[in-house]
Amino acid sequence: MRILPSLNAQPNEYRERRDKYLSFLLNKLKKQIEEGSDKPCITGNILKDPEAKLNEMEIKSICLTMVSAGLDTVPGNLIMGIAYLSSEHGQEIQKRAYDEIMKVYPDGDAWEKCIIEEKVPYVTAFVREVLRFFTVIPICLPRTSIKDIKYEEAVIPAGTTFYMNAWAADFDESHFKSAHEFSIERYLDNPEGSGTPHYAYGAGSRMCAGSHLANRELYTAFIRLITAFHIDPPKEAKDRSILDALECNAIPTGLTTDPKPFKCGFRARDLASLERWMAESEERTKDLAASNFNQKLIHASSEPNARGIKTTAAVGF
Ligand code: HEM
Predict the structure, then answer these.
(1) What family name appears in the similarity comment (predicted)?
(2) How many Å lie between the centroid of ligand 1 and the Cα of residue 96?
(3) Cα(214) to centroid(ligand 1), Å
(4) In terms of domains, do 81 and 147 share one?
Protein backbone atom coordinates (compact mmCIF):
# COMPACT_ATOMS: atom_id res chain seq x y z
CA MET A 1 0.00 0.00 0.00
CA ARG A 2 2.86 2.35 0.82
CA ILE A 3 4.66 1.59 -2.45
CA LEU A 4 1.67 1.59 -4.83
CA PRO A 5 -1.02 3.54 -2.97
CA SER A 6 -3.13 4.03 -6.10
CA LEU A 7 -3.81 0.28 -6.34
CA ASN A 8 -6.28 0.34 -3.49
CA ALA A 9 -7.96 3.49 -2.24
CA GLN A 10 -9.92 1.79 0.51
CA PRO A 11 -7.33 1.86 3.34
CA ASN A 12 -7.01 5.64 2.99
CA GLU A 13 -10.78 6.05 2.93
CA TYR A 14 -11.09 3.96 6.08
CA ARG A 15 -8.33 5.94 7.78
CA GLU A 16 -10.11 9.22 6.99
CA ARG A 17 -13.38 7.82 8.33
CA ARG A 18 -11.61 6.57 11.45
CA ASP A 19 -9.86 9.93 12.05
CA LYS A 20 -13.21 11.65 11.68
CA TYR A 21 -14.93 9.66 14.40
CA LEU A 22 -11.91 9.82 16.70
CA SER A 23 -11.82 13.62 16.41
CA PHE A 24 -15.57 13.76 16.90
CA LEU A 25 -15.40 11.71 20.11
CA LEU A 26 -12.37 13.55 21.47
CA ASN A 27 -13.92 16.96 20.82
CA LYS A 28 -17.14 15.82 22.42
CA LEU A 29 -15.24 14.75 25.55
CA LYS A 30 -13.36 18.08 25.67
CA LYS A 31 -16.66 19.96 25.50
CA GLN A 32 -18.14 17.80 28.26
CA ILE A 33 -15.06 18.45 30.43
CA GLU A 34 -15.50 22.22 29.89
CA GLU A 35 -19.16 21.94 30.89
CA GLY A 36 -18.40 19.60 33.79
CA SER A 37 -20.74 16.91 32.40
CA ASP A 38 -18.09 14.29 31.49
CA LYS A 39 -18.13 10.74 32.86
CA PRO A 40 -14.91 9.36 34.41
CA CYS A 41 -12.65 7.78 31.77
CA ILE A 42 -8.96 7.25 31.01
CA THR A 43 -8.82 9.82 28.19
CA GLY A 44 -10.57 12.38 30.38
CA ASN A 45 -7.98 11.82 33.11
CA ILE A 46 -5.17 12.44 30.61
CA LEU A 47 -6.82 15.59 29.24
CA LYS A 48 -7.36 16.96 32.75
CA ASP A 49 -3.89 16.13 34.05
CA PRO A 50 -1.74 19.29 33.77
CA GLU A 51 1.40 17.14 33.95
CA ALA A 52 0.42 14.75 31.16
CA LYS A 53 2.85 15.21 28.31
CA LEU A 54 0.88 13.54 25.53
CA ASN A 55 -0.06 15.53 22.46
CA GLU A 56 -3.38 15.13 20.64
CA MET A 57 -1.98 12.71 18.08
CA GLU A 58 -0.61 10.47 20.85
CA ILE A 59 -3.90 10.55 22.75
CA LYS A 60 -5.79 9.60 19.58
CA SER A 61 -3.35 6.80 18.90
CA ILE A 62 -3.85 5.36 22.40
CA CYS A 63 -7.64 5.62 22.08
CA LEU A 64 -7.48 3.85 18.75
CA THR A 65 -5.29 1.07 20.13
CA MET A 66 -7.65 0.54 23.04
CA VAL A 67 -10.57 0.13 20.65
CA SER A 68 -8.97 -1.71 17.75
CA ALA A 69 -6.85 -4.14 19.79
CA GLY A 70 -9.98 -5.70 21.21
CA LEU A 71 -12.09 -5.62 18.06
CA ASP A 72 -11.17 -9.02 16.61
CA THR A 73 -9.59 -10.66 19.60
CA VAL A 74 -12.33 -10.42 22.22
CA PRO A 75 -15.12 -11.42 19.77
CA GLY A 76 -12.95 -14.26 18.41
CA ASN A 77 -12.75 -15.76 21.90
CA LEU A 78 -16.36 -15.01 22.64
CA ILE A 79 -17.56 -16.70 19.45
CA MET A 80 -15.33 -19.75 19.88
CA GLY A 81 -16.32 -19.96 23.56
CA ILE A 82 -19.98 -20.01 22.50
CA ALA A 83 -19.10 -22.58 19.83
CA TYR A 84 -17.57 -24.81 22.48
CA LEU A 85 -20.52 -24.35 24.84
CA SER A 86 -22.85 -25.47 22.05
CA SER A 87 -20.97 -28.79 21.71
CA GLU A 88 -21.77 -31.99 23.58
CA HIS A 89 -19.02 -31.37 26.14
CA GLY A 90 -20.17 -27.76 26.30
CA GLN A 91 -23.57 -28.88 27.61
CA GLU A 92 -21.84 -30.40 30.68
CA ILE A 93 -19.73 -27.28 31.10
CA GLN A 94 -22.79 -25.04 31.00
CA LYS A 95 -24.52 -27.10 33.65
CA ARG A 96 -21.55 -26.95 36.02
CA ALA A 97 -20.94 -23.25 35.28
CA TYR A 98 -24.58 -22.38 35.93
CA ASP A 99 -24.53 -24.30 39.24
CA GLU A 100 -21.32 -22.54 40.28
CA ILE A 101 -22.79 -19.14 39.39
CA MET A 102 -25.96 -19.90 41.37
CA LYS A 103 -23.89 -20.99 44.39
CA VAL A 104 -22.25 -17.56 44.50
CA TYR A 105 -25.35 -15.57 43.45
CA PRO A 106 -28.44 -17.43 44.70
CA ASP A 107 -30.48 -14.20 44.53
CA GLY A 108 -30.09 -13.88 40.77
CA ASP A 109 -27.79 -10.84 40.83
CA ALA A 110 -24.89 -12.39 38.88
CA TRP A 111 -25.84 -10.24 35.87
CA GLU A 112 -24.92 -6.96 37.63
CA LYS A 113 -22.32 -8.22 40.11
CA CYS A 114 -20.08 -9.73 37.42
CA ILE A 115 -19.15 -6.21 36.31
CA ILE A 116 -17.68 -5.25 39.66
CA GLU A 117 -16.27 -8.54 40.95
CA GLU A 118 -14.92 -11.89 39.76
CA LYS A 119 -16.10 -14.55 42.17
CA VAL A 120 -16.82 -17.65 40.09
CA PRO A 121 -13.47 -19.46 39.63
CA TYR A 122 -15.03 -22.04 37.30
CA VAL A 123 -15.95 -19.31 34.78
CA THR A 124 -12.53 -17.64 35.19
CA ALA A 125 -10.96 -21.02 34.42
CA PHE A 126 -13.30 -21.50 31.44
CA VAL A 127 -12.19 -18.12 30.02
CA ARG A 128 -8.54 -19.12 30.38
CA GLU A 129 -9.11 -22.42 28.63
CA VAL A 130 -10.96 -20.68 25.78
CA LEU A 131 -8.01 -18.30 25.43
CA ARG A 132 -5.51 -21.17 25.38
CA PHE A 133 -7.51 -23.59 23.25
CA PHE A 134 -8.34 -21.11 20.49
CA THR A 135 -5.22 -18.86 20.65
CA VAL A 136 -6.81 -16.28 18.34
CA ILE A 137 -3.51 -14.58 17.40
CA PRO A 138 -1.66 -17.81 16.65
CA ILE A 139 1.71 -16.28 15.79
CA CYS A 140 1.45 -13.12 17.90
CA LEU A 141 2.64 -9.81 16.49
CA PRO A 142 5.89 -9.34 14.54
CA ARG A 143 8.72 -8.08 16.76
CA THR A 144 12.14 -6.72 15.75
CA SER A 145 15.26 -7.44 17.81
CA ILE A 146 17.24 -4.37 18.82
CA LYS A 147 20.56 -6.13 19.43
CA ASP A 148 22.40 -9.24 18.23
CA ILE A 149 21.19 -12.42 19.91
CA LYS A 150 23.40 -15.49 20.32
CA TYR A 151 21.42 -18.70 19.99
CA GLU A 152 23.46 -21.88 20.33
CA GLU A 153 26.06 -21.63 17.51
CA ALA A 154 24.29 -18.86 15.59
CA VAL A 155 24.08 -15.12 15.98
CA ILE A 156 20.74 -13.56 15.02
CA PRO A 157 21.54 -10.00 13.94
CA ALA A 158 19.83 -6.93 15.35
CA GLY A 159 16.88 -5.86 13.21
CA THR A 160 15.59 -9.40 12.65
CA THR A 161 11.81 -9.85 12.64
CA PHE A 162 10.53 -12.53 15.03
CA TYR A 163 7.17 -14.20 15.32
CA MET A 164 6.31 -16.16 18.43
CA ASN A 165 4.32 -19.31 17.70
CA ALA A 166 1.83 -18.90 20.54
CA TRP A 167 -0.39 -21.65 19.12
CA ALA A 168 2.47 -24.18 19.32
CA ALA A 169 3.29 -23.03 22.85
CA ASP A 170 -0.35 -23.43 23.89
CA PHE A 171 -0.41 -26.99 22.58
CA ASP A 172 2.99 -27.97 23.96
CA GLU A 173 2.46 -31.28 25.78
CA SER A 174 5.50 -30.65 27.97
CA HIS A 175 3.76 -27.59 29.42
CA PHE A 176 0.04 -28.51 29.18
CA LYS A 177 -1.10 -32.00 30.11
CA SER A 178 -3.35 -33.45 27.35
CA ALA A 179 -3.00 -30.15 25.53
CA HIS A 180 -5.46 -31.16 22.78
CA GLU A 181 -8.26 -31.66 25.29
CA PHE A 182 -10.47 -28.78 26.34
CA SER A 183 -10.08 -29.00 30.10
CA ILE A 184 -11.26 -26.31 32.50
CA GLU A 185 -9.88 -28.39 35.36
CA ARG A 186 -6.31 -27.57 34.33
CA TYR A 187 -6.90 -24.04 35.62
CA LEU A 188 -9.03 -24.74 38.66
CA ASP A 189 -6.14 -25.50 41.01
CA ASN A 190 -3.73 -23.12 39.36
CA PRO A 191 -4.00 -19.78 41.15
CA GLU A 192 -2.98 -16.58 39.38
CA GLY A 193 0.73 -15.92 39.58
CA SER A 194 1.86 -19.53 39.34
CA GLY A 195 3.52 -19.12 35.94
CA THR A 196 2.28 -18.22 32.46
CA PRO A 197 -1.26 -19.63 32.32
CA HIS A 198 -1.26 -19.65 28.49
CA TYR A 199 0.30 -17.79 25.54
CA ALA A 200 -2.82 -16.28 23.97
CA TYR A 201 -1.63 -12.85 25.10
CA GLY A 202 1.95 -13.45 23.99
CA ALA A 203 4.75 -13.32 26.55
CA GLY A 204 7.49 -11.08 27.86
CA SER A 205 7.82 -7.33 28.00
CA ARG A 206 5.66 -6.79 24.91
CA MET A 207 2.84 -9.13 25.82
CA CYS A 208 -0.72 -7.87 25.44
CA ALA A 209 -1.23 -4.60 27.30
CA GLY A 210 -4.99 -5.13 27.46
CA SER A 211 -5.03 -8.65 28.93
CA HIS A 212 -6.64 -7.65 32.23
CA LEU A 213 -9.38 -5.71 30.47
CA ALA A 214 -9.94 -8.55 27.99
CA ASN A 215 -10.13 -11.11 30.82
CA ARG A 216 -12.75 -9.00 32.58
CA GLU A 217 -14.76 -8.51 29.39
CA LEU A 218 -14.79 -12.22 28.61
CA TYR A 219 -15.63 -13.20 32.19
CA THR A 220 -18.53 -10.72 32.28
CA ALA A 221 -19.85 -11.81 28.90
CA PHE A 222 -19.78 -15.53 29.76
CA ILE A 223 -21.32 -15.06 33.20
CA ARG A 224 -24.18 -13.16 31.56
CA LEU A 225 -24.60 -15.58 28.66
CA ILE A 226 -24.64 -18.64 30.90
CA THR A 227 -26.91 -16.98 33.46
CA ALA A 228 -29.38 -15.90 30.80
CA PHE A 229 -29.37 -18.74 28.25
CA HIS A 230 -29.07 -22.42 27.56
CA ILE A 231 -26.79 -22.61 24.54
CA ASP A 232 -28.05 -25.52 22.44
CA PRO A 233 -26.32 -27.48 19.67
CA PRO A 234 -27.59 -26.86 16.14
CA LYS A 235 -30.46 -28.99 14.87
CA GLU A 236 -28.40 -30.36 11.98
CA ALA A 237 -24.92 -31.87 12.31
CA LYS A 238 -23.70 -29.94 9.24
CA ASP A 239 -24.15 -26.66 11.17
CA ARG A 240 -21.87 -27.66 14.06
CA SER A 241 -18.89 -25.45 14.80
CA ILE A 242 -15.35 -26.57 14.07
CA LEU A 243 -13.57 -26.84 17.41
CA ASP A 244 -9.98 -26.72 16.25
CA ALA A 245 -7.97 -23.53 16.72
CA LEU A 246 -6.59 -23.55 13.17
CA GLU A 247 -9.39 -25.27 11.25
CA CYS A 248 -12.05 -22.92 12.67
CA ASN A 249 -10.39 -19.93 11.03
CA ALA A 250 -12.12 -18.67 7.87
CA ILE A 251 -9.12 -16.51 6.90
CA PRO A 252 -5.92 -18.42 7.74
CA THR A 253 -3.71 -15.63 6.33
CA GLY A 254 -5.22 -13.09 8.73
CA LEU A 255 -3.46 -12.00 11.89
CA THR A 256 -6.45 -12.89 14.05
CA THR A 257 -8.81 -15.86 13.91
CA ASP A 258 -12.02 -15.11 12.06
CA PRO A 259 -14.32 -17.98 13.09
CA LYS A 260 -16.10 -19.90 10.33
CA PRO A 261 -19.90 -19.67 10.55
CA PHE A 262 -21.82 -22.22 12.62
CA LYS A 263 -25.23 -22.40 14.20
CA CYS A 264 -26.39 -22.82 17.79
CA GLY A 265 -29.53 -22.00 19.75
CA PHE A 266 -30.00 -19.52 22.58
CA ARG A 267 -32.87 -20.51 24.86
CA ALA A 268 -33.70 -17.98 27.59
CA ARG A 269 -33.67 -19.60 31.03
CA ASP A 270 -36.12 -17.02 32.38
CA LEU A 271 -37.50 -14.56 29.84
CA ALA A 272 -38.90 -12.12 32.41
CA SER A 273 -35.52 -11.77 34.19
CA LEU A 274 -33.71 -11.44 30.88
CA GLU A 275 -36.02 -8.64 29.75
CA ARG A 276 -35.54 -6.85 33.08
CA TRP A 277 -31.72 -7.15 32.87
CA MET A 278 -31.73 -5.86 29.30
CA ALA A 279 -33.96 -2.92 30.25
CA GLU A 280 -31.70 -2.07 33.21
CA SER A 281 -28.59 -2.26 31.03
CA GLU A 282 -30.25 -0.02 28.47
CA GLU A 283 -31.15 2.48 31.17
CA ARG A 284 -27.56 2.49 32.51
CA THR A 285 -26.10 3.15 29.05
CA LYS A 286 -28.77 5.44 27.64
CA ASP A 287 -26.40 8.42 27.67
CA LEU A 288 -24.01 6.50 25.44
CA ALA A 289 -26.64 5.50 22.92
CA ALA A 290 -28.58 8.75 22.82
CA SER A 291 -26.43 10.84 20.52
CA ASN A 292 -27.10 11.06 16.86
CA PHE A 293 -23.50 10.03 16.23
CA ASN A 294 -24.02 6.68 17.90
CA GLN A 295 -27.06 6.05 15.75
CA LYS A 296 -24.93 6.71 12.69
CA LEU A 297 -22.20 4.37 13.94
CA ILE A 298 -24.69 1.58 14.54
CA HIS A 299 -26.10 2.14 11.08
CA ALA A 300 -22.63 2.05 9.52
CA SER A 301 -21.75 -1.19 11.28
CA SER A 302 -24.92 -2.84 9.99
CA GLU A 303 -23.80 -2.57 6.41
CA PRO A 304 -22.59 -5.89 5.01
CA ASN A 305 -18.81 -6.32 5.11
CA ALA A 306 -16.62 -7.73 2.34
CA ARG A 307 -17.87 -11.26 3.10
CA GLY A 308 -21.48 -10.10 2.95
CA ILE A 309 -21.98 -10.51 6.70
CA LYS A 310 -23.91 -7.91 8.64
CA THR A 311 -22.50 -7.06 12.04
CA THR A 312 -24.15 -4.75 14.51
CA ALA A 313 -22.51 -4.02 17.82
CA ALA A 314 -24.81 -3.90 20.79
CA VAL A 315 -23.09 -2.70 23.93
CA GLY A 316 -24.80 -2.61 27.27
CA PHE A 317 -23.29 -2.78 30.72
C1 HEM B 1 -8.89 -11.69 24.19
C2 HEM B 1 -8.45 -10.55 23.72
C3 HEM B 1 -7.02 -10.25 23.36
C4 HEM B 1 -6.03 -11.11 22.93
C5 HEM B 1 -6.12 -12.62 22.74
C6 HEM B 1 -4.85 -10.30 22.70
C7 HEM B 1 -3.62 -10.80 22.28
C8 HEM B 1 -2.51 -10.02 22.06
C9 HEM B 1 -1.24 -10.54 21.60
C10 HEM B 1 -0.94 -12.00 21.26
C11 HEM B 1 -0.37 -9.50 21.51
C12 HEM B 1 1.10 -9.58 21.07
C13 HEM B 1 1.94 -9.97 22.25
C14 HEM B 1 3.35 -10.36 21.94
O15 HEM B 1 3.86 -10.01 20.86
O16 HEM B 1 3.99 -11.03 22.78
C17 HEM B 1 -1.09 -8.31 21.93
C18 HEM B 1 -0.56 -7.05 22.00
C19 HEM B 1 -1.24 -5.93 22.43
N20 HEM B 1 -2.54 -5.88 22.87
FE21 HEM B 1 -3.82 -7.44 23.01
N22 HEM B 1 -5.14 -9.00 22.98
C23 HEM B 1 -6.45 -8.92 23.39
C24 HEM B 1 -7.16 -7.79 23.77
C25 HEM B 1 -6.61 -6.53 23.89
C26 HEM B 1 -7.31 -5.37 24.35
C27 HEM B 1 -8.78 -5.36 24.80
C28 HEM B 1 -6.44 -4.32 24.32
C29 HEM B 1 -6.61 -2.89 24.71
C30 HEM B 1 -7.59 -2.41 25.36
C31 HEM B 1 -5.17 -4.84 23.86
C32 HEM B 1 -4.03 -4.09 23.69
C33 HEM B 1 -2.85 -4.57 23.20
C34 HEM B 1 -1.67 -3.73 22.97
C35 HEM B 1 -1.56 -2.22 23.22
C36 HEM B 1 -0.67 -4.58 22.49
C37 HEM B 1 0.75 -4.21 22.08
C38 HEM B 1 1.66 -4.34 23.29
C39 HEM B 1 3.10 -3.94 22.93
O40 HEM B 1 3.44 -3.90 21.75
O41 HEM B 1 3.87 -3.67 23.87
N42 HEM B 1 -5.32 -6.19 23.60
N43 HEM B 1 -2.39 -8.67 22.27
Answers:
(1) Belongs to the cytochrome P450 family.
(2) 30
(3) 9
(4) yes
**Tens of pLDDT along 182-240?**
999 999 977 554 678 999 999 988 999 999 999 999 999 999 999 999 999 999 999 99
The verdict on residue 197 lying in a domain is yes
Domain residue limits at 44: 1-68
Give the integer Cα–Cα distance in Å for 90 and 211.
25
Q: Are 232 and 86 in contact (CB under 8 A)?
A: yes
**Ligand 1 atom index nearest CA of 204:** 16
3-state secondary structure of 296: helix
- Give the Cβ contact number of residue 46 at 10 Å: 15
Residue to substitute in 136, 201, 205, 213 for testing ligand 1 pocket (most ligand atoms within 8 angstroms of CB): 201
CA-to-CA separations, 96 to 151, 185, 189, 255, in angstroms, rounded: 47, 12, 16, 34
Residue 240 CA, distance from chain mean position: 22
pLDDT in tens, 134-179: 999 999 999 999 999 999 999 999 999 999 999 999 999 999 999 9
Find the 151 Cα to ligand 1 centroid distance in Å: 27
Report yes or no on 316 lying in a domain. no
**Residue finishing a domain among 269, 291, 306:** 269
230 shares its domain with 152: yes
Q: How many domains does the chain have?
A: 2
Show which of 229, 248, 269 is a domain's final residue. Answer: 269
